[in-house]
């Protein structure tokens, strides 16, 4: 069975067979059902996830107790709470499976060892993670100042595959609107 992480990394840089084997052996495959928490808010993030199939969401709860989605990440993406992972401090956000999801996981200790074993891997993963974060921020910034209906249509245009796979309440939280408002917007669009 081919390894989606190796295939993904090979798109960015060549790895020898030995390096590929080391990378594949260091990661553990896990499956999560929709709604499963991979990381709870307040925990220290000690794992890096690579999404093979499905969608993860970075989420938090505001002062009013309303759950908000900061980002959706789909297959072919790394996911972690970067500042918590890098600095060993509690995370302000959590990570949740937005739909049934399969990931490859590595803990921080193993990752540090792998970086020593595979030269250049740290720089590559850092670059990919930073590029994806900047892309997600750019997408979020596009919603600023837009009316809720315009935000929803922009979301459908930018992330149609995510829109088809995640619950409407998560989309509403991502767009900063209530599920009821999203329902009205969807009805008026038909």
From TrEMBL:
SUPFAM superfamilies (alphabetical): cAMP-binding domain-like
Alphabetical list of PROSITE patterns matching this protein: CNMP_BINDING_3
UniProt-listed InterPro entries: cNMP-bd_dom, cNMP-bd_dom_sf, RmlC-like_jellyroll
Residues of the Cyclic nucleotide-binding domain: 15-114
Pfam families for this protein: cNMP_binding
Record protein name field: Crp/Fnr family transcriptional regulator
Organism per entry: Mucilaginibacter conchicola
């Amino acid at each position: 069975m081919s390894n989606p992480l190796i295939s993904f990394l090979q798109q960015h840089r060549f790895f020898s067979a030995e390096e590929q084997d080391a990378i594949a052996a260091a990661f553990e495959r896990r499956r999560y059902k929709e709604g499963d928490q991979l990381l709870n808010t307040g925990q220290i993030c000690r794992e890096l996830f690579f999404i093979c199939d499905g969608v993860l969401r970075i989420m938090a709860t505001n002062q009013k107790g309303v759950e908000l989605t900061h980002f959706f990440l789909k297959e072919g993406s790394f996911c972690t709470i970067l500042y918590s992972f890098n600095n060993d401090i509690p995370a302000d956000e959590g990570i949740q499976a937005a739909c049934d999801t399969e990931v490859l996981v590595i803990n921080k200790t193993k990752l540090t060892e792998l970086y020593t074993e595979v030269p250049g891997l740290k720089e590559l993963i850092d670059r990919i993670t930073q590029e994806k974060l900047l892309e997600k921020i750019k997408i979020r910034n596009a919603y600023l100042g837009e009316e809720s209906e315009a935000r929803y249509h922009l979301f459908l245009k930018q992330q149609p595959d995510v829109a088809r796979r995640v619950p409407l309440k998560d989309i509403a939280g991502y767009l900063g609107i209530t599920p009821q408002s999203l329902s009205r917007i969807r009805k008026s669009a038909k």
